[in-house]
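User: Last request for today: this protein with FE2/S2 (inorganic) cluster, please.
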Amino acid sequence: MNAQFMLNGQPASIECAPDESLMTVLRRAGLRSVKHGCESGECGACSILVDGRLTPTCLLLTPQAQGRTLETVEALDGGPGRSLHPLQQAFAETGAIQCGYCTPAMELAAKALLEREPRPTESQVREALAGVLCRCTGYVKPVEAVQRAAAVLRGEIVPPIQPDGGLTLDAVFGPLRSSPDPDSPETGGTTLTGVRTITFPTVDTRTRTDVVGRPEMKVDAVKLAKGKPVFADDMDLPGMLHATLLTSPHAHARITRIDAAKAKALPGVRAVLTHHDVPRVIYASGGQTWPNPKPWDQVSLDNKVRHVGDRVAVVAADTPEIAREALALIEVDYEPLPAVFEPRWAMAPGAPVIHDEPDAVGVHDRARNIAATIHANIGDVERGLAEADHTFERTYTVQQVQQAAIEPHICATYWDEDERLIVRTSTQVPFHVRRMLAPLIGLPVKRIRVIKPRIGGGFGGKQEMLIEDLCAHLTIATGRPVRFEYTREQEFTSARSRHPMEVKYRAGVMKDGTLHALDMHVISNTGAYGTHGLTVCSVTGLRGLATYKSPHQRFVGEIVYTNRPTPGAFRGYGAPQAEFALESLMEEIAQELGWDAVEFRLKNAVRVGDPIAVTAALGEGTSEESQAQIVQTCGLPQCVEQGAAAIHWDRKYDAAWRVDPARPHIRRGLGMAACMHGTAIPGLDMGGASIKLNDDGSFNVLVGATDLGTGSDTVLAQIAAETLGAALNDVIIYSSDTDFTPFDTGAYASSTTFISGGAVKKAAEQVRAQIFERAALMLRTDLAGLTLKDRRVTAPDGRSVTLEAVALDSLHTQDQRQIMATASHVSPHSPPPFGAQYAEVEVDTETGQVTVMKLVMAVDCGTAINPLTTQGQIEGGLAQALGYAVCEEMVFDEAGRSLATRFGDYRVLQADEVPAIEAILVPTYEPSGPFGAKAAAEIPMDGVAPAVANAVFDAVGVRLRDLPLTPEKIWRALHPQA
Ligand code: FES
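Assistant: Here's the final one, the structure of the complex with FE2/S2 (inorganic) cluster:
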């Protein structure tokens, strides 16, 4: 049929099937700002304006749009001479764009609001944005962006984001026409009120910097604000096939017969692959450094399934509809096996054996379903407990949660003209994917090229070689390009998640309040496969024993198979589990011994110069040097102080504040947690960077690092620009493509700024040395005293040459050569960032409902290379961590079927549900990091859950040791007799 409507101001007539969604049709028409995030209209990423109202298009059949007026971000017009609409500009310059996958829909939601309400309140903005889920930002900066754009559209002047200069949109596109000139006679210099001035702390970079330490706009912000086709799915190839996955309905079963004949006979089906069709090659899917940690317990397609949602068969067909139809025609006979979902039962004698296949490698104890174990000892913990004046024993449990990136896993594979396999995939680990994929598909590494486009959020979920092998098998089988994307349901049933754990602590404390022994026993549920199980659990031990000094420590970790969907890497990587237990424990000990809980923490916390003993016992690093970690910078006391001031900690002791006479069932409380994370894996994480000078004095910077929306491309470009005396917009950064960019282990372990940034700095220093040599030749002077700044090399006598002149001379004139360098960086250090997390709550004693009113986190991440993106990371992390604390949970029925397979059931927080969030940067200067930087991306995940639990205790006196802190649990704790 032909659907006719007004599309972006023009009459449009589009061919479509009667049952095609408007999302599919618009994307096929080239409007790639319309994103797929789910199939139930709940994430809002596909939303456009239909007759001026924000409308999800995944649910809207195209014929329903007949005669309507449709508007997408492609039509947002900044007006004459301008590239961006004020909304797009505000989103870009306030840092409201992280991965950018939700941005077009957010901008449209804001546009609809501002058209009906030019001066919206914050709650109106939040309500308007509530239809679009954002997993990255915590909505703090999007709300600021809408208010800023509203002011601009009202003709007001907005305060600058960068009072000290640097790359601004005005520098790129000219000043906003809709902003009156403050100095013009017409405006009389009127300034806006109502939009807060965005300011950042002074960053200690040790020397004055021009680009580093400044809130520069993200280098990819403009294209993301415009909804350009930059993601993995935003491409078309002639003859592209569509893949779908048949998944297991059983938690544990043997496939006794599988027959794909009927599916293969369906017209339009090009391939159906089962375990009969692909080679059986054992691997582990976690995207980790070679050799992947054991166990290796997976194959591409198996004759046994180990969880509901496990792989059974994969289909490639001409259309997604045919592919889905084919799934129903695959005949599978299962022999159901007893299933087990809890680790303690899985380890018990007689439990069903989940990995009974003979070819799995490195399974610790098959009969007891133990994938791996970890043991680490410092001192003698039993002696330490015996010597202690007070001993404590507590057990905490944490649930399984999902990364819930708005962009699902998506991959496209195709042969190029040289018969090399191209893999365009949304991955955090392109180099690991290439290496791990090669043996599975029987191609050498040199015949595989992995391209990482922009990523719509990963949070660890894409640190996995999850779908690339199946997509590649289909391209090999058909010779055709294949596109494979998970549905949202498959994200919940067949992707990765965070490990649920049971964490048991025993602690010994002396009379003077010093910790004397800390014993930690973790049972981690790794689901059906081992993948990241071992390393996540070792980080749980690291984070659970590193923050506080104790002469006697022990860690025992048991990583246990069950028939749950497999957990993997998730931002924080084992730390949030540990920190909930540790920071609840510290509070409990302090309360029982009569200590102020903050003082008790600071008394025992590591300080500058302290060794972190447990890193030697549990670190992944390969060299001895890499494991002897000494704290060189620690801003924890300052974080505690500044965070306390921001949350008004003194209210904790104000009896009047703690109750509300108008609502007698409400109690208020405050809680805190101290946090310590790591920065990269010492002696193991490695990054490479390559930099070359172009004719006009600009630079190409190629990095293997993977920006998954965190802003790492911007940060790395800032490091290059600073070192090379260039402006940020003179640096063209590209990440990442295994053919063209140097190796990098990938985006995980809070490593990119520290490790890849170190590589960029080294390469830039080498390029700078070559520039000096050339400039000295041109100026007929020696190297001593040359300086490089503002795109110019200047000699001590004041003569100078521009970078452009240096480039032209080197490339075209004398002693011709390309000024360029490549460098690698690996560090023996893993400097810990520190943080103090505060939460303010209200608890309804009648319903058990906890309402988090405010979250404050003060973070010592060393030098914030870009305070704007760093703050954004913290704000977004806090919102994610709040979901972990109070509402997110993967729930299963007794057969192992997930009960939450949609965003609506799972409850990712919306814009109007997130409390006030404040991120404070506490600068220190870390000598081992580039320009003094440590990490910031993961630490905000660590402290929210214990801070909220501690606040709930403060409010109503009940201690919850099991996440999430649901109203039912709180109510039951408040009413134990009920
Ligand atoms: Fe909103 Fe990533 S920026 S989902």
